[in-house]
Design a protein that fits this description.
about 5% strand; rod-shaped
């Protein structure tokens, strides 16, 4: 079905390619625009208080960050120092093992003083190994 354009002389319509179209939007009552609310100017004292509050919050955050960084650095220094100390103790444990293995059972039996010395070195070595194992250091 073909539609034909109805020619009209109604106000607001203009011919466009044989058809009539509205030139402008129909008039409607003006929409009420919300009134822009203006904030009253703040008192200079209030502005200064706001500025100082922000500055204080920033300073407190900076101090907290500095404290956390210092604590982390101290913990890292302790771990590093403990690591080096444990490494040095491993050298001592190796030397105690060597000292203990240097004396044979025959020498210990022949010389009671050497036997007692070997027994003391073995006990010290065992104690050191036990303490290192308690702290997670395997030999």
């Amino acid at each position: 079905m073909r539609r034909t354009a109805v020619r009209s002389t109604m106000r607001g319509l203009a011919p466009v390619q044989g058809r009539f179209y509205c030139e402008k939007a129909p008039e409607t009552p003006e929409q009420e625009k919300p009134e822009e609310t203006q904030e009253p100017e703040k008192d200079p004292k209030d502005l200064k208080i706001e500025e100082l509050s922000k500055s204080l919050a920033y300073s407190l955050a900076e101090a907290d960050n500095a404290r956390k960084i210092a604590m982390r650095d101290v913990d890292n220094a302790k771990k590093y120092a403990l690591k080096n100390f444990a490494k040095d103790l491993l050298d001592v444990a190796d030397n105690l093992d060597r000292a203990s293995s240097a004396v044979t059972e025959e020498e210990s039996a022949a010389h009671p003083t050497v036997g007692n010395l070997k027994k003391g070195v073995d006990m010290t070595n065992h104690s050191l190994h036990k303490i290192l194992a308690q702290h997670g250091i395997d030999i």
